[in-house]
Every structure is written in structure tokens, then in C-alpha cells.
Sequence to fold (438 residues):
Amino acid sequence: MIRTTLIAAPDRGRVLAPKAVVLGAVTFALSGVSCLVAVWWVGNLRRDNGFYIMPSSTATQARVVLGTAALLALASVFALAVGTIVRRSAVAIATVIALVVLPYILGASAIGPLQWLLRLTPAAAFAVQGVLHRYSQVDAVYIASSGYFPLTPWVGFGVLCLWTAVALGLAWHLLRRRDA
Amino acid sequence: MKLAIHAEWTKVRTAGGTCWFLLAAVVLTIALSAAAAAGVSCSSSACDQDAVKISLTGVYLGQLVIAILAVTAVGSEYGSGMIRTTFAAMPRRHLVLVAKAVLVCGGALVAGVFGVLGSVAAGRLILPGKGFTAAHGYSTLSLVDGATLRAAGGTVLYLALIGLLAVGVAAITRDSAAAIGLVFALLFLFPLITAAVNDGHLQRHLEQISPMNAGLAIQATVNLRGLVINPWAGLGVLALWALCALVIGGATMQLRDA
Fold:
């Protein structure tokens, strides 16, 4: 099918960009709605079960919801780029999961050097979900799985942006250069 | 059966990617293990870390490559339509699945042995420099030690079982992309959900039935009483998952159109 697509749109750069835009927009919309429902519903559920919910401002909650939606949208565009680069769906899916999900699993409950995984890999973007503050005078377990990420929200998100930009650039270059 | 294995062997041998996947599994396993060993430190006799488990961390990456290999062994035939030729030549379809499972298992065992030996060697070289010394209660990593041998051998078996699980799942989904997504969901969703749940009992049960958490219990060499599941029982849980996937995959392969 890609051969038909590329015959219909010989300017191959113009094939990748609309794919990225449509994929990103649809993912953002869908995950935005589900994040909103999840935050509202799970928050109420936990409150009803007697959990104390740390207070956070509306702006922070909006950042968490929109940030998570943007994280998923960007991750899908990243996956599109990886798919274009490797051209095999199983390898592409495995690579993206190895880069986005695995570092979170390895780094989230780690103390020490494994936390660097949440600074360097695309999984750094999970920092947009960070709400809690670190206090230097409080001796707590500052790990990602309890809500303390090594990077500030937007810096973490920027790491994913960087990965996506590089992958898209490489995908664009390879799509133009290679045979289909 | 011999014929089925021979036919599958020809496919595996002549398909370009196989060698590279096995090599990648070995290299990535050793690389992540070495990185994990280089990243830890132990400054006192109470650092409470499992040196063997740390030096086998690489299996987290190695298993992904084995899963790709296993999934494409089944899924690529469905993708290209080759599976119809295969079934025409081999009408007893379950033999095809068994042959594929045997070869994937063999490949995973070979890659696993090299990956694990390299990882243990890396741990043996790196960990003493990081404070894992006799003074802090750690002996040099050696496969002569019973627990270390169990952890290392069990990790090889773990990789083989992950391969079998992925073959079964791919036979169920008939599509590489869907299969790899499903396998990774089985592996990774359990730890993610476990981290989010804060009911101790539920956490414990989730870890006991999770293919990855339970299966990797085989790597533990210290604090065995604190484990949610006994090492060999944990590997058994993963074996059950793999068996279920293979049986369902075999049955659907037999019942459905190709």
C-alpha cells in the first residue's frame, strides 16, 4: 500500500507530515478526554475510600491532564517516526516500548543511577505528571513511583520532544532516500 | 515432526534477520547488565543488595528481542501469506506450531546462555570495584555457587519461556504487530498496575500471577523469605502462561482459516 501512497504523493515529505499531524491530533483528543475522566473519577473514588488527596491548583491539574495527553500524542508521533525508520511493525513497536515504557518500569522505583533513565530516555516526559514538591529538609523516598520525578515537568517533556524531533528528521530523510 | 522442524529450520536459517536478532539479544542483555552493575555501589555491609540479580538486569532488554524473534517467526508468515503454502504442505497444523516453538526455544536458549554468561562475567569484573567485596559480605560472583547457578540457569529458561509465550500469542493474533503489543502488555502492565495499587494483598497477588515479576523471582539470591513467590514456582507461573498461550494458539490455528 505504501507504494500506492508514494505514487499518489511523490513528494514523500508531504506523506509523513500529514500522518504525524492526524495521528498526533487524534491521540491528543482521545487521551485528553480519557485523562480528564480518569483524574476526576479516580480522584473521587480515592477520596470516597478515605485517601487523603494532596491539594493542587487547577492550573496544576490542567497541566497534568493536558501534559499527559500531549505526552501520549508525542509518543505516537515518535512511534510513527520509528516505524518509518525500521519499516517493520513488530520491531518498531518493540523499540518504542523499550524506549518509553521499559525505562519507566526500571527507573520509577530505583534509587541512584537508574533514575538517569528518567532523565535521558523518552520516558522523562512522565515528569508532566509530577505534582509533589521536594523539600531538602524532609528526608523522604524521592522516587518517581511515589510522584517525585528527577526532572521538572516541562524539561522532561522537552526530552521527549527532542527524541521525537530527531526520529522524525531521520524518518523524513530515510523515507526520501530509500526505495519503498 | 522431524520434517516439520527441518522445514521451519530452513525458513529460520535463510530469513535474514534471525542471526541479527539473536546477536542483538546477547549484546543488549550483556550491555544493560554491565550498565546496571556499573551503576550500583555498596558502601557498607548493610547495603542489602542482590549482586546476582543486579548483574542479570540485562534480561529486561534481552527478553524484548527474543519476543520479537518469536512473534515474527509466526506473524511474518501470516503477513506475507506464506502460511497458506505452509499449511498446504503440512496439513497437521499443530506440528507447524510445535516446530516453530522448538526452534524459537532453541534460539532463545542459545542466546540466553551467551547473554547470561556475559552478564555474569561483567558482574564478576565490575561489582568488586563497586564495593561488593568480601568485607561487605559479598563473595565473587561464581556459577559454582548453588544460588547463583540457579539464578543464571533460571534466567536462560526465562528467556526460552518468553519465546514460547510469544509464539503462542502470535498464533492467536495472526499478526506480528498485535502479538508484540499483547506480549509486552502481559509483561509490563502487571508491574505498572502493581506500582499504582496500594492494597498490599492485591499487590502481592498481582506479582504472583504476573509473568515477568513471578518469572524473574528465579533471579533472587538474597532475602528469599521476602519474595512474593518461590523462585521455581515463579518460573512455573511463566511456564503456565506460555503453555496456555501455546495450547490456545494451537487450537485456534487448527480451527480457523489461515
Remarks:
- The interface with chain A takes residues 36, 38-41, 57, 60-61, 64-65, 67-68, 71-72, 75, 176-177, 179-181, 184, 188, 191-192, 195 of chain B (CB under 8 Å).
